[in-house]
Write a structure and sequence with these properties.
The chain has about 650 residues and is of the alpha+beta class. The protein has 20 helices and eleven strands.
């Protein structure tokens, strides 16, 4: 039984695994069939059309054909169709346009972390290889060619990559489940996160390629070195100073790359965190806390007349307002702060207007009396809607402050008449001005001009109830359910939730992106610190003799500390400068992902740069202290 009519099940649809797409949440599909009266209405524009293109036909050809049809309709029906057009958009683009920027941002973060890890591994392999200069010299003396030496180093790196990739895939099997369990409530609705063979094969290939590439860095260093370097290393024994000097530039370049990439990730995470903080703290124009919401639809067969629909909703509101623990209750067609609702063309009565399609559009919301009180929206001027604004009374509306500023600047909006909608075009009197509310969602760039119509004067068989509770709104669910079923026991209550949770669901994608980006940034910071520490530890170890000589000639501990710290901070500062430039360029390209935050905020840039410099300083503290404690006698004995 649907809307009081019997329906026969003739088929079972497959599950549509598309996150965020409305049809994926539909449970029952019925035929869309218009009667003659409905077909005669040419101003109805609320339907979506999905078409599959014929083989060999691209989007541009389809758009050209639709433009031809739209032009023909405009000539045949100028009153309804002049100025209206169609836009052909691939369904894949439509489904991914909201999440594509965030996914590209996360993909970039993954690539940056991978590059930082490669730089770390390359640095460690380079250090290990330079420490084997004597071994390589002996192999070369015994007849090994330069190509054979390179293949040996590449094979060792590949073996390490295979072992690391295997361990990583094993941990990923449990890590994904842990991630979904920990962040399940933050994942975008309908998103299916799991591992499959394609993901495993791709990740394994990337791991092997990265390991091999990291191993080839020291091999490349050997290929471009002087032909006599290995022979000299053999003649001079350990050859520590020469070996260290030979790879110093490569090691410094890798540290610079690590620091620059880490800075970009840290700034991206900081911008995302600040953006989310601004979103949550920005004044939405209403108070969503302590409000219970639910959707209720009336079957057309049982409630066919607009008066019946209005009367039913009024009776339910009367019952809800009488419940203990309820402060106020009202109805609205689209919840604010969540998703965009209805938009319609508007004109000021008595003023010249162009074609309907050329008229500006404003947000339109249908509300019942008490809505302003329920959501605590301030009434700036005039009066609120009342129970006397019924279907048989003159049509009245409330408008937002931004609506008054845009369409009636410097004028008294009270008493002005608006012509709203597509059909029928009815003149409506402005009786009040209310504060701006983010009706189109928290991410709206600015206030949206909004018109509030009385739901009783424009009845609709489905509506959203908003109930402000004196206590926890979740505790009202049983009582609210009983009150509605006392009027009609067969009506289902849909989307029962608090307004806070609905707003949180709208921010789930931003919060999820922020958490992952912050995790990647933290990992990048850790890898950069490890890289700096490992390079300095190696350098100090190779320069023990030099440091001993310096101290024997009168160098103080502070001189040795300064020597090591300066060597560490040189590449670090260069990496910070390069990273700031890259972050500024990327920030401008990704500015649409951030809300209320300047992508060139000097305070934020300075704080992140200081954080990274501080981490580098701490990473150099251990090797510097160890160098300062070198005994000159022991050093000279080496």
């Amino acid at each position: 039984m649907l809307d009081g009519r019997r329906h026969t099940v003739v088929g079972v649809m497959p599950a549509l695994r598309v996150a965020g797409w409305y049809p994926a949440t539909v449970q029952v599909w019925t035929p869309l069939a218009w009667n003659a009266k409905e077909r005669a209405v040419r101003s109805e524009r609320l339907q979506y059309v999905i078409a599959r293109l014929k083989p060999g036909v691209d989007r541009l050809q389809a758009q050209a054909e639709m433009d031809t049809l739209a032009g023909r309709l405009a000539r045949q029906y100028p009153e309804a169709d002049k100025g209206w057009a169609t836009v052909v958009q691939p369904l894949h683009d439509y489904l991914t346009e909201r999440v594509r920027p965030a996914l590209l941002l996360l993909l970039g973060a993954v690539v940056f972390v991978l590059l930082i890890a490669c730089a770390n591994v390359a640095n460690l392999v380079l250090v290990r290889t330079l420490g084997r200069s004597k071994e390589m010299a002996i192999r070369g003396t015994l007849g090994a060619s330069r190509g054979q030496l390179v293949r040996q180093l590449a094979a060792e790196a590949l073996l390490l990559a295979v072992a690391g990739a295997g361990l990583g895939l094993y941990l990923a099997h449990f890590g994904v489940a842990l991630l979904v369990g920990f962040l399940g409530n933050l994942l975008p609705q309908g998103l299916d996160v799991h591992l499959d063979l394609r993901i495993l094969a791709f990740t394994l290939g990337i791991s092997l390629f990265a390991g091999l590439a990291a191993g080839l860095v020291p091999a490349w260093s050997f290929l471009r070195s002087d032909p006599h370097v290995l022979r000299q290393a053999l003649q001079r024994g350990l050859g520590r100073t020469d070996a260290a000097a030979g790879g110093r530039r490569t090691r410094g370049a890798l540290v610079v790359a690590e620091v620059a990439l880490s800075l970009v990730l840290l700034l991206g995470a900081a911008l995302m965190i600040e953006s989310l903080r601004v979103l949550q703290r920005d004044d939405p124009g209403c108070d969503p806390h302590g409000v219970l919401t639910l959707v209720l639809g009336l079957p057309q067969q049982q409630y066919p007349e607009p008066r019946q629909q209005s009367a039913f909703f009024d009776r339910v509101l009367t019952r809800l307002r009488a419940l203990p623990g309820v402060e106020a209750a009202a109805t609205v067609d689209w919840l604010p702060l969540t998703e965009p609702g209805l938009n319609e063309p508007v004109a000021i009565a008595g003023r010249t207007t162009g074609a309907l399609a050329e008229q500006p559009q404003v947000a339109v919301r249908l509300i019942s009396p008490g809505y302003l009180r329920t959501l605590r929206i301030a009434l700036r001027r005039g009066r609120d809607l009342t129970a006397t604004d019924a279907l048989d009374r003159p049509a009245v509306v409330l408008i937002s402050e931004s609506m008054a500023r845009r369409f009636l600047p410097g004028e008294d909006p009270l008493g002005k008449r608006l012509i709203l909608g597509i059909a029928p075009r009815v003149s409506q009197e402005v009786v009040g001005v209310v504060a701006d509310v983010k009706v189109d969602g928290l991410r709206a760039a600015g206030p949206v001009p909004t018109v509030y119509q009385a739901m009783a004067q424009r009845p609709w068989p489905a509506t959203t109830f908003v109930v402000r509770a004196k206590t926890r709104p979740e505790s009202l669910v049983p009582a609210v359910t009983r009150a509605i079923h006392a009027e009609d026991k067969d009506l289902p209550l849909l989307e029962v939730a608090t307004l806070d949770s609905a707003v949180a669901a709208m921010l789930a994608q931003e919060r999820f992106t922020m958490l992952l980006l912050a995790a990647f940034a933290g990992l990048a910071l850790l890898l950069a610190a490890v890289g700096i520490y490992s390079v300095l530890s190696y350098t100090v170890g190779r320069r023990t003799q030099e440091i001993g000589v310096r101290m024997a000639l009168g160098a103080q501990i502070r001189d040795v500390l300064r020597l090591v710290v300066v060597e560490a901070m040189g590449p670090t500062l260069l990496g910070i400068v390069l990273g700031l430039g890259a972050a500024l360029a990327l920030g401008r390209a990704l500015a649409s992902l951030f809300y209320g935050v300047s992508v060139a905020d000097p305070l934020l840039f300075g704080a992140v740069a200081l954080l990274l410099a501080g981490v580098a300083l701490l990473a150099s503290a251990g090797p510097a202290w160890r160098a300062a404690r070198v005994s000159p006698g022991e050093a000279l004995q080496e």
